[in-house]
Specification:
26% helix, alpha+beta, eight-stranded mixed sheet, D-amino Acid Aminotransferase, Chain A, domain 2, seven-stranded antiparallel sheet, globular, D-amino Acid Aminotransferase, Chain A, domain 1, binds pyridoxal-5'-phosphate
């Protein structure tokens, strides 16, 4: 299907992309007044089924974002879930996809402090998983821009405006010849990437910044922690990480619904480990992809089938 022909869930109806239009005067258009989720659905060829991954966790986070943003919105998780299923089914996708589910302040006359009217769109698009084995990684740059923090614009609230901070760091990294940025927080510890969380491995221990280190409460981060402990019996530490700890670790990777597991091979010209994708990174990536596509029976409760059986 041509991407421009895809169907969008827009304010309660399923419409063509070209018919999903927002006013130029809406607080969404003028001030980026929106909160959103980026959700993945993975195709299981064995079961002929498309599975949405961890919808409950995504919708808990979306409801928290709506609350923090003080939007006048009183729908629940079932509303979010049914709308997502309806629009993915309408597009008849039978492949891996990414879904953007955005709740926004609509209307022709609002300001940056308006609490409504609130509307929603859901936009699915094909997006293939990273292939196994993971052979390549990225070079990162510690940004001169600090990550936003809980007392300025909280990274816990997944709103569009937070990504201006991400944009500044990513543009700087690209201009400096790197693939991606990494943020320090206002205390000088490693926070996260512009659109993903970070893990390092040191002496067989998996370490990731804590949820109070100016990061998004990432669902993939939570998934990786659980899989590392349960499937690989690793010790996982959630704690502050210093810059030099990152430079001297054995393995490092970014993770996120979009990034999945993305190995970091170099930071600021410092080679990580032996400069190759690490063993634990490869193992976690492989387990992650099996779990999201329904190959691990123990984690089926994280999956929502799109097509009725
Ligand atoms: C800033 C930021 N951190 C972390 C993540 C990873 O979050 P999740 O695993 O829930 O996709 C994202 C992904 O959207 C992000 O934008």
């Amino acid at each position: 299907m041509d991407e421009n022909e895809r169907l969008i869930w827009f304010n309660g109806a399923i419409v063509k992309l070209s018919d999903a239009r927002i006013s130029v005067l809406s607080p969404m258009a003028q001030f980026g007044a929106n909160v959103f989720e980026g959700i993945r659905c993975y195709w299981s060829g064995n079961e002929s089924q498309l599975y949405a991954f961890r919808l409950q966790a995504h919708y808990n986070r979306l409801l928290n974002s709506i609350k923090l943003f003080r939007m006048d919105f009183d729908h629940d998780e079932t509303f979010f879930k049914n709308a997502l299923i309806d629009v993915v089914k309408a597009n008849m996708y039978k492949e891996d996809i990414a879904v953007r589910q955005t709740v926004f302040i609509d209307g022709d006359s609002g300001t940056w402090s308006s609490t409504g009217p609130v509307n929603m769109f859901i936009s699915p698009i094909p997006k293939q998983r990273k292939t196994i084995p993971l052979n390549d990684g990225i070079r990162c740059h510690i940004s001169s821009w600090l990550r936003i923090n809980d007392n300025t614009l909280s990274p816990r609230m997944k709103c569009g405006a937070n990504y201006i901070n991400s944009r500044l760091a990513q543009q700087e990294a690209l201009l400096c010849g790197y693939d991606s940025a990494l943020f320090l927080n206002n205390l000088g510890f490693i926070a996260e990437g512009p659109g993903s969380c970070i893990f390092i491995v040191k002496n067989g221990v998996l370490i990731t910044p804590s949820l109070t280190d100016s990061i998004l409460e990432s669902i993939t981060r939570d998934t990786i922690i659980k899989l590392a402990e349960k499937e690989l019996h690793l010790t996982v530490q959630e704690r502050s990480i210093t810059r030099t700890e990152l430079y001297t670790c054995d393995e490092a990777f970014l993770c996120g619904s979009a990034a999945e597991v993305s190995p970091i091979l170099e930071v600021d010209g410092m080679i990580i480990g032996d400069g190759q994708v690490g063993l634990l990174t490869k193992k976690l990536h492989s387990i992650y992809l099996k779990v999201v596509s329904g190959e691990y029976i123990n984690y089926k409760n994280w999956l929502t089938p799109i097509y009725s059986l």
